[in-house]
Design a protein that fits this description.
The chain is mostly helical and 476 residues long. The protein has 2 domains: 18-217, no CATH class; 223-475, no CATH class. The chain contains 20 helices and no strands. It has helices spanning 2-34, 37-58, 61-68, 79-108, 120-145, 149-173, 177-199, 211-221, 223-245, 248-261, 263-285, 290-314, 316-323, 332-351, 353-357, 362-386, 388-413, 420-439, 447-467, 470-475. The chain is globular and about 60 Å long. The N and C termini lie close together (7 Å).
């Protein structure tokens, strides 16, 4: 039953993400063409800056609510207090941040509107858009905790699709530039937010605000700020170091590799959205067997994501040659490593669960910063000699290090029961496919090579099924 629910919910969440990103992909050229390069640069800086502010304002409260909502020690009647306290705390934090941000901008950028391609209206709309997206995401996480994927789909799609369409209309047809784009998207988010609140109105019992729960949620959530900051540095420093130690061309090669490898993120992100509420519910419903269920899901997730990465890795040369041409052929080899880097990233959703259950979230922050330093050192050593391929090695090793560190502390603090023999065998199978992807790298189309790679994938699937029997999956 767990696997069926995870599969169904993952498909719905992944479908919403896929449709919204597809729409964004096709509307992006219209917006970019309607704006000047300078205006588009300003837009990217605004969105990047407000996104970083959103990480701070979120304060990890989404993670906190997901941790405590289905906690066996939390009485069902107290869940309203958990949700309401978290939501009101986030509202207050963002209100203070918005006032502070506008005050600082007024102090340091008094000439806004004359020297820049946007005005105070655009800046205010950007801040409101950021806050509205965070508030809506909080409600969406509550909807997921209630296992209502179709309600999630309705709110998510309405917000994202209308934002994309109205944004294009404001920029392309009305010619309102950055101000129009941000204003239109902020308007959509603020109109959709009441709809989202209406769906979870029974959970948002505002008179039930509890100082005790607000303190508990904030204490649990604040380390996620530092984790997110470390992750932001970790995921962006490779491009900066490539530009500094190698060339801008290598940045382009690396970025193309990452874009193709990121297809796996659709599966990983969809699973993550389905898994987080289910994991807590499993613990509440199966207090004796949940550690084994977690271990079985870890093995199955690793096998499935590695199979997808294996397909991308084995056919990286053919994909790049067919879709991008000879100019980007050097993106194929980094793409292999980045695909498997995302495999290791996906497993963190389970390898870190013991840290979460024991409320030791400060470890997430510490380990994220340690990984950032490890990644910096690897990039420093590998990029000058190997360029984009070196940066890919650094990323893959760093993700493997981080999920391994999570697993180490999980097994010390709140162990999950996993067959170490099966785990080693699945990892061995994964590393074997990485090796074979390099060995059979082929930048041109070849019928014999393609057939051989298909046979390798079939063999991977057969061996994976032997390592993790079908009976084990059904038991989950």
């Amino acid at each position: 039953m767990v696997i069926k629910q995870l599969a169904k919910d993952s498909a719905i969440y992944g479908g919403a993400d896929l449709v919204s990103k597809t729409i964004s992909f096709f509307t992006f050229p219209f917006i970019a063409k309607a704006l000047s390069p300078e205006s588009f640069g300003f837009l990217e800086l605004i969105l990047t800056s407000t996104a970083l502010l959103g990480v701070i304002g979120n304060f990890g409260l989404n993670n906190s609510v997901q941790r405590f909502y289905w906690d066996p020690q939390v009485n069902p009647e107290d869940r309203k207090e958990v949700v309401s306290s978290g939501f009101l705390s986030q509202l207050l934090i963002f209100f203070l941040l918005l006032v502070l941000a506008l005050g600082l901008c007024l102090l340091f950028f008094p000439e806004l509107g004359s020297a820049y391609a946007f005005t105070w209206f655009g800046l205010s709309a950007a801040l409101l858009l950021m806050a509205g997206n965070q508030w809506t995401q909080y409600i969406l996480d509550v909807i997921r905790l209630q296992f209502r994927p179709w309600s999630f789909l309705a709110v998510s799609m309405t917000s994202r699709v209308l934002s994309a369409i109205l944004g294009v209309f404001a920029v392309v047809f009305l010619g309102k530039g950055i101000d129009g784009l941000l204003g239109a998207q902020a308007l959509v988010v603020m109109l959709v937010l009441p709809l989202a609140v209406l769906i979870v109105r029974k959970e948002l019992a505002f008179p039930s605000f509890s100082k005790k729960w607000a303190k508990e949620l904030l204490q649990y959530g604040y380390p996620f700020i530092f984790s997110a900051l470390a992750y932001w540095v970790f995921t962006s420093q490779d491009r900066w170091m490539l530009a500094s130690f190698s060339s801008v061309e290598e940045v382009g090669i690396y970025s193309v590799s990452f874009r193709f490898a990121s297809v796996i993120l659709f599966v990983s992100a969809a699973f993550g959205q389905a898994w987080s509420p289910v994991a807590m519910k499993i613990r509440a419903d199966h207090p004796e067997s949940y550690p084994k269920i977690y271990g079985d899901v870890l093995l199955l997730l690793l096998l499935v994501i590695a199979l997808i990465a294996g397909f991308i890795g084995l056919f990286s040369g053919e994909v790049i040659h067919f879709l991008m041409g000879e100019e980007y052929v050097d993106s194929a080899l980094p793409m292999i490593l980045l695909a498997f880097a995302i495999v290791f990233q996906a497993t963190q959703q389970i390898t870190g669960i013991g840290i979460s259950l024991e409320k030791r979230t400060v470890l997430f922050a510490h380990l994220s910063w340690v990984t950032m330093v490890v990644n910096f050192g690897l990039n420093w050593f590998l990029i000058p000699n190997y360029g984009a391929l070196g940066a890919s090695w650094a990323t893959a090793i760093s993700y493997f290090f981080l999920t391994g560190a999570y697993f180490f502390f999980t097994q010390r603090l709140h162990p999950i029961r996993v067959s170490y023999l099966r785990l080693v065998l699945v990892l061995g199978l994964t590393f074997s496919v990485i090796f074979l992807s390099f060995w059979f790298y082929q930048p041109e189309l070849s019928g014999i090579t393609i057939l051989l790679k298909i046979l390798i994938l079939i063999g991977f699937l057969a061996l994976g099924r032997a390592i993790i029997p079908l009976k084990s999956i059904k038991n989950v």
